[in-house]
Specification:
The protein is built from one helix and 16 strands. Strands 5, 6, 7, 9, 12, 14, 15 and 16 form an eight-stranded mixed sheet that branches. Strands 1, 2, 3, 4, 8 and 13 form a six-stranded mixed sheet that branches. β3 and β4 form a beta hairpin. The longest helix is centred in the first third of the chain and has 19 residues.
Amino acid sequence: MNKIVAKRFPRNAVRAGAVAVGVLAAVPLVGQGMAHADTQVRLPNQTVTKKLADGTALTITRTNERARINPSMGGTPLHRNAWVSGRYDVKASDKKAKLGIASGYIVGCQLTLGGNSTTKGTATPGTGDYDVPISATAETGASVTLGPGQAANYTINDVEGKDDFGAESHGAAVTFAGGSGAVAYTNETMMINGCAGYAQARSYAKVQVMTDHTTQVVYLYGKPFSLG
């Protein structure tokens, strides 16, 4: 934090000092119109409980979701940057259940990312659970180019592992045993290029639950917010 120190000047130096300050103060005002302050967005907490096919109750809680949005360094309306943070806590009533928790954001250009329901469930994992076409998938930190009517899926997690043949594999889900788990992230970056109109983003959690009797995927969507 900058510290301002007040100094006492001789009486005959006050007028000259005032003139000098006036000249210097005029310099940064020329560029002030080009500067853009970051927009801070804080989103509501949410808890949803869904009953699975075998009667297992799954509770997903989203807390501390927030976003900091600013234009690009170039200052053009085609570019936007966002830093996002949040936390998901997941708990199943079946203590033996295994969980896979993936989180991310759907980002749309000239699309309204609304919806009547904040949860969706499917019998098997899939990517067709959102009501807009996804044109690109990227990890946070990457730049995605979107045109009008297009949407992208930004994934938060990148989990390294081995496939069935021992080769390196990557996934978006963090796995937990014992019926509960949590995923948190802070200041993950999303960069959107090419969108000349308004842009929106909406968080989601994709939770896969595996019990002795069923395997099911449940989605929780957050509140949409504007990227400008």
